[in-house]
Write a structure and sequence with these properties.
The complex is a heterodimer of chains A (166) and B (120). Chain A is mainly alpha-helical. Chain A contains 6 helices and no strands. The model of chain A has no long low-confidence stretch (mean pLDDT 84). Chain B has a domain at 29-111: N-utilization substance G protein NusG, insert domain (mini-chromosome maintenance (MCM) complex, domain 2). Helix content of chain B is 28%, strand content 36%. Chain B is built from 3 helices and 7 strands, in the order αβββββαββα. Chain B has a 4-stranded antiparallel β-sheet with strand order 2-1-7-6, with no helix packed on it. Chain B has a 3-stranded antiparallel β-sheet with strand order 3-4-5. In chain B, a hairpin with a 2-residue loop joins strand 4 (61-67) and strand 5. The model of chain B has no long low-confidence stretch (mean pLDDT 83). Classes of the chains: A mainly alpha (166), B alpha+beta (120). Chain A binds chain B through residues 30, 33, 73, 75, 79, 97, 99-101, 103-104, 107-108, 111, 121, 124-132, 134-136, 138-139, 141-142, 146, and chain B through 1-5, 8-9, 12-13, 15-17, 19-20, 23, 36, 38-39, 79, 82-83, 85-86, 93-95, 97, 99-100, 102, 104, 106, 119.
Chain lengths: 166, 120
Amino acid sequence: MRSKQIALYGVFAALAVLMGYVELLIPLPLLVPGMKLGLANVILVIALYYMDAKSAFFISLIRVVLCGLLFQGFAGLLYSLAGALCSLGIMTLLQKMPKFSMIGVSIAGGVFHNIGQIIVAALVVENIKIAFYLPLLLVSGVVTGFLIGVVAQYSLRYLARFQNSK
Amino acid sequence: MKRFDILLVAAILVVAGICYIYYTHHAAPGAYAVITVEDTVVEKLPLDKDTTYTVQTQAGYNIVTIQDGFADVTEADCRDSVCVESKRISKTGETIVCLPHKMVVSIEGDTEQEIDAVVG
């Protein structure tokens, strides 16, 4: 059981890092600094439901450190970390409430990822005016969060089938 | 989608809408482009005079161009070029941010705004 878990951690962490890379390859019309697809969140939402909050937390941590060191440098790492922690925190909270579906959880995660990043950005630049972008980031968080929730939901169906077949 | 999901989305969109209305309501044509590096004002450029200014920070440079009453970052050697790709700005409160260089170009009106006192 334990070795299976270790393997799962590895697979999920690798996928999350990979998603970070894929995201770099997709050119996005940059309306707002900090706007992102948040593809890695697909993996984290799946991890949150397939495993548990603790596992998702560690996978997120591994992803942020690896992605940060590989693609972004130290400042980028800081933003990612803030975004990831905010996002995972709210997702863990909402997941425990049965009144929210996976899509709702994912939307909250996307939105709070952006909020976390903007808070760090405001602290680093020491300028609250950066919150000017908040409305756009909120809306983009809702849209990407929704799409990611849908993808995660479909993926989990297949994962469940895979688990049952053993 | 459950009912609470929809409520959540509605709540977020309402917050976004309020923020947006607040910002646009307070946006007036600005008079100056204020360039800030790490919270110190380095230059204040009047928007009605076309000019180019090079901001030299410890991390690199950004070139700010004032033209037709708009301020824009036209060139920079930062890693992500977010500032260069940002749209040009002209209304009070609008900003262009270069995070790698910790540089902010923001538009201010003729008179000092109260909000600046709060931030400072």
